[in-house]
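#random but structural
TW: two for the price of one
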Amino acid sequence: MCGIVGVTGNDNAVEILLEGLQKLEYRGYDSAGIYVNDENGSDYLVKEKGRIADLKAAVGPEVHGTTGIGHTRWATHGVVSVDNAHPQVSQDHRFYLVHNGVIENFKELKAQYLSDVTFTSQTDTEVVVQLVDYFAKQGMNTKEAFLQTLSLLKGSSYAFLLMDSNDPETLYVAKNKSPLLIGLGDGCNVVCSDALAMLNVTHEFLELQDGEVVTITPNSVEILDREGNGVKRESFHVEMDAQETDKGTYPYYMLKEIDEQPNVMRKLAQMYLQESGKTNVEPELIAAIKAADRIHIVGAGTSYHAGLVGRKLFEKLTHTPTEVHVASEFAYEKPLLGENPFFIFLSQSGETADSREVLVNVNAENYKSLTITNVQNSTLSREATFTMLLNAGPEISVASTKAYTAQIAVEAILAKAVGMAKEQVIAEEFDLRQQLGLVATGMQAIIDEKEEIEDLAKEYFVDASRAFYIGRGIDHTVSLEAALKLKEISYVQAEGFAAGELKHGTIALIEEGTPVVGIITQEKTSSLTRSNLQETLSRGAKVITIVRQALAKDDDTIVIPDVDEMITPLLSVIPAQLLAYYTSLNKGLDVDRPRNLAKSVTVE
């Protein structure tokens, strides 16, 4: 989950590295560091515990160079400390290495090759850089030593960026499972975990495949595949405006991204839906899903929750049996599959390690698949049969908001397209273009009243130690996402439950003052959920309701506009996102960077 940046051939290397790390801080923010070299024998290593701001403060005016590497860390091996921060350094200070991933056999390699080395960190990364140094001392050149080291790593995920202080213009890169891109600049080249880190330098990037090793100088990029053969690859252009990654006047990215959701809905409607009612979905994709006997949706965290909503959409609009799987479970406990399954992968980043592991297995079985992602040319996008883009713009806050609603909207679009192909009347009559217009307007109405939701957060959640969200059917799926938002950024122990399950154990946790939020958007279950809320009230709970206008009563807390019941999660989740945001804000926490979390989970 760490973030990597590198640059060669630019006098502003220090500024490029620091700004790039700032853009990647969502990937890890335990510690950070840079190493730069100025080609004339002067080099500088600066590492600091904490945020990128702390690293910037530690970088003095004397630190300069034309080539360098940088890293922002999410701790795996070793505690959070300056010693464990990257870059890690060989014992003789010749080699410097940054790394994203996990080396499974690092202890064995350390014992076999490096018993005479004095280690300064607890990291697996230091073992790798000391190995490069070990083989260099055996007479190998840097590339040979790097390749020999890579050949010893077993079952590992990694993205490596190596510098040799004796050859300060050259960067050595290797990738397996963890994301890494090469950026092509004007008289310089860069390396990054995510293109958004280097948009101020270039918009042209080269994707890397697993097992490839790359040698980069200011004017050249040499890619070798697993067999050592040279690879020629066309670059791809990233259209994103660098300003899209700025907070602007917002105090936190999360609030900005919540506010962007109405526009995301409008963009998706324009992109995928025609005024005639037809969809702009790839015909081959529609045909592949139409032919499937079962749909399997795979995701993790928020994407898994979006998949739960998607299951209801696909089953209702296409009449195709649909299952939803937690990626990390599916990867190693594969369920029985039908004759012709179709797989849908949901991932904001397109780099989720657990989902990628499932996709590797799916491809080995020659099953067809679709990735729904926010990131063009991401690993899951490249390796799936089909891709549909969310086009939601960069999502920087660790807590996902607009990606969740965009995933649901794209699932609805796809389900309608397949349902129409199967001549399902409900799909043909479902005016999704109009409904997404209503959703966008409804989202904006809720967002415009955010101050009232802040008042509720202060009253109900800021001083709470636990909280519950409940609902039935599709509202239950939203309760899971709502609880996740609250727990991950405010540290309130929050859980989402099917309302009818309260009496089967959970109600034992309800005590005086416990916040319970009931989500009520489905007519056939509204009275049942209200009854469950009364049961919590009688035990001292403080109740909030999020209710669709047509089902509202005078004493309801938050009333959301009416849209078709199938897509109410697009609206009912907005108050929950805002409740989580304002709870975290008023507890004085870092909304965008909650403790122990990172945005992209690229390590299993």
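TW: number two ↓
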Amino acid sequence: MLMLSACSSDKLTPAEQGINTQTLLIANGDEPRELDPQLSTGSPEHSIHLALYEGLVSKNSKDLSIEPAVAESWEISDDGRIYTFRIRDNARWSNGDAIKASDYVWSWKRSLLPKFGSEWAYLKYYVKGAEAFHKQKNNNFDEVGIKAVDDKTLVITLNEPCNFFLQLLDHYSFFAVHPATILKHGDIDQAISKWTLPENWVGNGPFSLKKWAINDVIVTEKNPHYWNADNVKLNAVHFYPITDKQAEERAFRSGKVHVTYTPQLAIEKIAWYRENQPEALRIDPVYASYYYEFNLTKAPFNDVRVRKAFAMAIDRKLIVERVTKGGETAAWSFIPTDPGGYQPKQYYNYDIKQARALMAEAGYPDGKGFPPVELLYNTNDNHRKVALAIQQMLNTNLGVQVQLLNQEWKVYLNSRKNLEHDIGRAGWIADYLDASNFIEILASDSGQNHTGWKSDIYDSIIAELKKTTDSQQRFKLFEQANKILADEMPVLPVYNYSDVNLVSPAVHGWHGNVMHYHPYNNVYLEATP
């Protein structure tokens, strides 16, 4: 009896109970702003979208190769501009409705409607007519290159060949949403809607939304209508918004979560896990940038000399070696080294003498007369540590006063979007494996450009990139963009990310990759011997 009592479920940690019930428990960083894939912009939302939705294609989490998903097959025309997708006969929404090609046409129209306000609309500019429709130069959506030939055949026409277009289709802004559900709770272009509440939600991913308790947990359960449900081993995935890095690590250590699913473990704990529990510590390089955005719409950062001085006054090597300590690399370019072979050049250094000279030239010798400025970051202890280091460097090296301001995730996103910051922390993990992904963020019409910076020459390089398929010519264009960013400095690169996570040995099918991409289709739990 004593033995039976000791093995009873009330003696098991939540993680141990999760193994028995195939329930994956994830620390998800922040409370998501919303669960609409065409409006979301952050990592907390993205990790949940991987459970709730699926695109026409997906990626293999081991090598990031493209795999069939909602579309069972596709054909590409000889000129590389026309993609014809065949949607699976057994592809279903979570309410049992068949997924139709017309659902994608309707969903893409929704994402391009100006009133809807998707920050991702620019990604669809590769599609014929999409840019003109979004910018209201042509209000006839029939001229946009996405057509439903029949219920199961979708044809997409591009302006020019795009060798990473299939990768783009796995970005959540390209996912379809259920038209009838959206319209039941508002208009097609209504951004604020109740359709994402659990009692209203309909999606097409391997899991369905069952519970959303604000600041507590989001519960998803296996979707029986998912086309590949028979091969999904997990029964549920629970997402916990834990912003405190120390609390996140304690949750892992005490068995409350299986995975710390934020890009950086509590900095103080990395060395301990390396020494004492290396089997749980996962460190992988990521195709990503950690950077700060300047607000160029007002003084003092409307002066390029000030922006350059700030960039030269930051000791990035010290930050990655003594602050972050997770294998990150110092960044001297906003564009990271590309997995495809592009290596950005470095045009400036850590140079206090030159930084001070630029400040003096701008009218602020030794920081005199420089107004106090705020550095905004979202609530996170690791972000605070980096901000403190930069605050001290700028004060010591330039004599300026930088006040730190932290905001919770939703408020922080709105502050950046509305240019209410002086300097704002930001990070970008690649959505596809091409340097244009980073370059396009700072386009004049990009919904992700939170700097107020615009450059016609820079925009023309982006336009040329969209027409160019030759890799060497693209590398030249990448470098032209890189040089402009170094000359204009709308953003201050700090380091290139490493993905530093704790993953329970009981978690199988969780693979490290340069895109921090961890779908749940092939993940399962199994106790270690």
